[in-house]
Amino acid sequence: GEVLSFYLSRLLGLDNVPIVSLSKVNHSSVQWKGINFSKLQWTEGNLVALIQWIPGISTVRSHVQMPEIIYKAYLQGKPLTGSQLQQAKLNKTTLSDIVQWGSMIIFDFLTANYDRVASMQDAALKEKRPSILQEHIRNLRKSPTSGKFWLIDNESGLLDAYDLLYRDKISGKNFVSFHQQMLKTMCIFQKSVADSLQTLKSLSAPHLKLEDFARYHEPLLNKIPKDYTYSLFKSMFSKRLAEVSNWIEYCKTR
User: Fold this and answer.
1) Of all helices (H) and strands (E), which one includes residue 167?
2) Which of 59, 116, 139, 244 has the CB geometry, 3.0–4.6 Å to 153, for a possible disulfide?
3) pLDDT of 37-73, one tens digit each?
4) pTM
5) How many Cβ atoms are within 10 Å of 116's Cβ, its own excluded?
6) Which InterPro entries has this protein been placed in (predicted)?
7) How far apart, in whole angstroms, are the C-alpha atoms of residue 27 and residue 120?
């Protein structure tokens, strides 16, 4: 899931998902020199995912909250539009954050990520306390120097997440709804991301495009066996692409 999510981000033209590289544990290799294998509990020959370390995003300053204008749109059940932004006269930093939120919403919808905004929507529903969404967003960080958002911990994306949404009859239905609510809160998207999504959506088998792209750059992906979650990814990825595409087309009329 982490690998496919990373390569999906690249197909969409996003550069704010940490690089993921697969590697086979080899105790005698120079690459692994100085690694405490007993502490990691990694055995010889294990296939592991190595994820890019992003400096500066482990501090309190890197935490991200939902912009007030998006939060209000979410509560009202009406999408945030370009004309609203013009009327709001927001500063450049806030505008940049809002645009990055749009890209994150698309990415999380396609991967069905349940451990970022959706998990907070779940908590808000269970506790009947919408203000939970105004807290620090889980697994989202912002570089204090560049202002770039970093979407971290995408392990569940596309595989386990699809399993939760489409096999779990109770929780799954809620999480499908959470993603739809968040998508329909936003009509502000980067043109480059929207165009890349449309290109992917136009293919007859977009899931194969993603797989082939990932395998080309990460040959070790072939070593990971496909389990029952793959069939859901195969059948539902194109449908989620179409759902986002249709929403973007609707937003163009707003």
Assistant:
1) helix 160-167
2) 139
3) 667 777 777 788 999 999 999 888 899 999 999 999 9
4) 0.94
5) 24
6) FJX1/FJ
7) 41
